[in-house]
Amino acid sequence: MLRLDPTPATFYLNGTQTELKVDLMADDVTDLLTYEFILTFNPAILEFVNITPGTWLAPVFTLHSEVSPGRIFFAYARLGPPGVNESGKLATLTFHVVGHGITTLAFSDPEHCRYGRFGGGALYDFDCQNGSLNATYDANSIKPVSVLGSVELQGRAGRGGAVMALSTGQFVGQGPYSATSTNAAGNNVSFSNVAMDLYRVTTNTPRYLNIPLSMNKQIALVGASTTIAPLNLIGGNAVWSDNEINTQDLGLVSGEFGKTSFIADADLNNDGAVDIFDLAIVAGNYGRSSAVEYAEWVP
Ligand SMILES: [Ca+2]
Ligand SMILES: [Ca+2]
User: Fold this and answer.
1) Which of 167, 217, 221, 262 could form a disulfide with 256 if both were Cys (CB 3.0 to 4.6 A apart)?
2) Do the domains 2-136 and 144-293 sit in the same CATH topology, yes or no?
3) pTM for this prediction
């Protein structure tokens, strides 16, 4: 049998430790002299670092090595007799855990999961048992924290309804988290039970210039409570599939102007009518964009 130890392996991501070692074990073999294997895995979770032959087979010669993302192919031979019997460690595999989630470590090609014996040219199939890894986080060491924020909505009487989010955490992979602002004074956005990690702050508020992931507004959550810097969202973005205020926005507002039944996104200040107030917002902000307006904002 060819197997991995430990399996299933559990790896606790914590933002600093990324190295995972897994032993490649052979059980119940007779006169083992050479062996080969192909192991495949999810490259978004594991990155192969190296392989160290075990002393059980020493001295060992590398016959073949081939590494590509998510796949390794190795073949080894013990130099000289005798062949090795029973069970032992063929090698130790070292990986970097680069993402969170579950991956199978699969001996995916039975044609290359076999060994040769001392004194003969025949090859023998291993009974190959796939391994697995769960890269996750330990809630006992990665504490849940709270995050507060303060968002203004330009042009509106209230400050409720702004949608802010924290992207999936960079190291331990929790989230994303989303929160909607309230009309309260002071901090009006609240996230709770957020795993300590490095996040990107985004907004996704209809009719406003938003902060997309691509602006890379990072925030590190390391303490029990973190407050995001106050943010003034700029209005007038009636067609808010983009993050700039241009002729499309002006066109939507002017096209719906004065109608009793109108496209909701034209009502920029959300007061139930499309009128001169909405036109003033879009005209006053004409030409503005998220890229420029939020360039200096650091969460
Ligand atoms: Ca727009
Ligand atoms: Ca309005």
Assistant:
1) 262
2) yes
3) 0.71
Q: How far is the CA of 156 from the centre of ligand 2 (A)?
A: 9
How far does residue 215's CA lie from ligand 1's centre (Å)?
A: 17
**Which ligand sits closest to the CA of 256?**
2
* CATH code for the structural domain at 144-293: 2.60.40.4130
Q: What is the pLDDT of residues 66-91, one digit of tens each?
A: 999 999 999 999 988 788 888 999 99
Domain assignments of the chain as residue spans, ordered by start:
2-136, 144-293
The pLDDT tens digits of the residues spanning 97-147 come to 998 899 999 998 988 999 999 877 789 999 999 999 999 888 777 888 999
Q: Which ligand is nearest to the CA of 240?
A: 1
Mean pLDDT of 36-43: 97
Q: The domain 2-136: what is its CATH number?
A: 2.60.40.680
Ligand number, closest to the Cα atom of 289: 1
Q: How far is the CA of 289 from the centre of ligand 2 (A)?
A: 21
